[in-house]
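Hi R.,

Here's the input for the zinc ion complex you asked about:
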Amino acid sequence: MRPTKRRWLDAYHESGHAIVAAVQGIDVHRVSILPIGRTRGRCFHGLVTDPMAALVILWAGIIAEGLSGKGRVLPRRSTGSDAPAAEKLVEKMCPNGCDAERVTLHLAAIEKASALLRRNWASVVSLAEQLQTAGELDGAVVRRTLGTFGGLALGDH
Ligand SMILES: [Zn+2]
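And here is the predicted structure with zinc ion in place:
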């Protein structure tokens, strides 16, 4: 059994991915903090065609950990494959760009992910608590949780 603190951070991490995907209109199939090999958790969702939306989802995991106050997030290997995936995505979005342009894209995504997480924080907390107990949840639970607290995208009031 992993330490509780690590499991809490994992629950917030995956809940962050799931809630930020769902409020951007992406269908979430399943979210899990059951370890598979070296992977401590995963959020399974439908195809994301908008690269900025995909980048926002990637950053949402580690930002949710940070916002949770459940433990020190950095320096640890908490980003897992998210940071390399985000870097790869930005290289595709900005193939001839300079480093400053790439950093600007990352920062825009981080800002958007933070805003979406803060707007939907009650849903993130609730989902993390359910995930911590169950280990794995299907997409219906994510939708029900967002329905309870009212999912808000950035343009919503
Ligand atoms: Zn992640």
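One thing worth noting: Residues 4-149 form a domain with the Methane Monooxygenase Hydroxylase; Chain G, domain 1 fold (CATH 1.20.58.760).

Cheers,
M.
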